[in-house]
Amino acid sequence: MNGARMKDRLLTWRFELRRTLGLPGLLGALLLGAAAVVAVAAMRVDANVDSHELRDSERLAQPARARHADAERAAVVDAISLHALPELFPGFAQSADDIATILAQAHDSNLTLGSAEYLVTNDSSAHFVRYQMLLPVKDQYGAIRRFLASVLNNVPNAALREIHVERPAVDGNVLDARVRFELVYRAAQP
Q1: Residues facing 158 on adjacent strands
Q2: Residue ranges of the chain whose pLDDT lies below 70
Q3: What's residue 100's pLDDT?
Q4: C-alpha distances in angstroms, 85 versus 78, 88, 158, 186?
Q5: CA-CA distance, 17 to 2, in Å (whole number)?
Q6: 1 to each of 4, 5, 8, 12, how far by Cα in Å?
Q7: What are the Cα distances from residue 143, in Å, to 57, 108, 112?
Q8: CATH code reported for the domain at 89-186
């Protein structure tokens, strides 16, 4: 059956229904069909809600001791992980090597460097020492971006704390940027 014959039969059927039922009857039949579809969908939703309620009641029926024991085990694992976290960071003695790596990455990226500023922060209650390095650089956007990516990929304890970029000339493509890296080190054990 081709498309034209199918279209012709559907039009004939529509005209016959309209002649037999009239426009109000046709609209009523359409509303009854829509109501049937909504009723079937509502039954499916109710069936899913019942299964969710059964699963929830089954979970609530577990003994409280088992849930409490699981929570205690999770707390112990979290405490061990938190205690081991400072050991994952290098000691402060590696700071010179990390700064040399950052400067080597800048040299490999052919960036023009200004004089850097350094700041060491050590909180008495913290397990970490933070070493901040403010580095002024000059170059095109792509070169600065590659430099930042190479530092973050090669120095795992480095974080990009801040970047401020200015374009000194409207028609120029060389940018002045100030990049602040923060290097995190394990504090010395007392």
Answers
A1: 183
A2: 1, 46-72, 74-85, 124-125, 189-190
A3: 92
A4: 10, 5, 16, 9
A5: 23
A6: 8, 7, 11, 16
A7: 60, 10, 11
A8: 3.30.70.60
